[in-house]
Amino acid sequence: MKNNFIFLAATLSVLSFNSCTDKDGSINIFPVSKDMELGAQVSAQIESDPATYPLIPLTGGNNARAHDYLNAIVDKIKASGKLDYKDEFAWKVRIIRDDNTLNAFCTPGGYIYVYTGLIKYLDKADHLAGVMGHEMGHADHRHSTDAMTRDFGVQTLLDIVLGKSSQGTLVQMAANLASLKYSRGNESEADDSSVDYLGGTGYACSGAAGFFEKLIADGQNPQVPQFLSTHPNPDNRVAAIHAKATVNGCSETYSSGESDFAQFKSDLNL
To answer: For 245-267, how does the pLDDT look when each residue is reduced to its tens digit (9 = 90+)?
Structure first.
């Protein structure tokens, strides 16, 4: 009993000194600096595992131009002035060569990964910008560390805060990030943020809706992770994204950058 009391007291002490209130008012046991450290560790793990994450090199052939294209989207979103951690987080983007996976994800601290399968599937640059805005929203609202607390437990995250994380834990975390199940509220907030971020960028602010509209038209493509296509229901997400765009009074007209998007796909041989 005495040992349990000491452990509980130590845990509460760590939480009181290391937890923080996000800028949107939510509570997260990680301070922002630890989001950044965790993201850097997970990013390093991803880069060390080319069998699972076949990253396209940053240089060579048309690779630099392809990454420049995605970084330009990120820069426009950052310039929206709507991200809470625009300057604190890394906001680095990498491409994963996997044409069979329609997905993108973002680690804590803003390390963004986009699969070639998703790029190949999308029809318009606005749709890609919308999906990237959604994933950046998850990181900026710190949803990933909230979800990791649920999936891994407080003790595991406390070990990371205290520098006691194992390689096996990082491997598991990297794997989970690609299929992390966010709450319904988190998904809706990220959808809303995507609309906020894209307003004034030149992309249709409802760009993310285009992705879900295509899924619906295709009968929910089986390559899409179930959590991404059905939580919440795609029809509801489309309606909510368009409603948010109406409230914001932002343009839903598709951008004229389709030739650049086609060149981007060509650079990736898609």
So the answer is: 999 999 999 998 889 999 999 99
Instruction: Give SS3 for 32.
Output: helix
Percent over 90 (pLDDT), the chain: 60
Q: Tell me: the pLDDT tens digits for 124-136?
A: 999 999 999 999 9
**Whether the predicted model's global pTM rises above the 0.85 cut:** yes
| Bridge partners, 269 (sequence order) | none
Backbone angles phi, psi at 6, to 5 degrees: -65, -40
Domain boundaries, the chain: 22-267
From residue 130, give the alpha-carbon distance in Å to each of 23, 41, 133, 167, 245: 23, 27, 5, 33, 12
Q: State the DSSP code for 232.
A: S
Cα angle 77-82-84, degrees, rounded to a multiple of 5: 110
Structure tokens at 37: 């450290």
Of the chain, the end-to-end C-alpha distance in Å amounts to 62
Neighbours of 175 (CB within 10 A): 15
Interacting residues of 42 by C-beta distance below 8 A, sequence separation 6+:
107, 108, 111, 170, 173, 174, 177
Give the ranges where the chain is alpha helix by DSSP (H).
Answer: 2-18, 32-47, 63-78, 116-121, 125-140, 143-152, 154-161, 167-177, 184-198, 207-217, 226-230, 234-248, 258-267
pLDDT at residue 158 above 80?
Answer: no
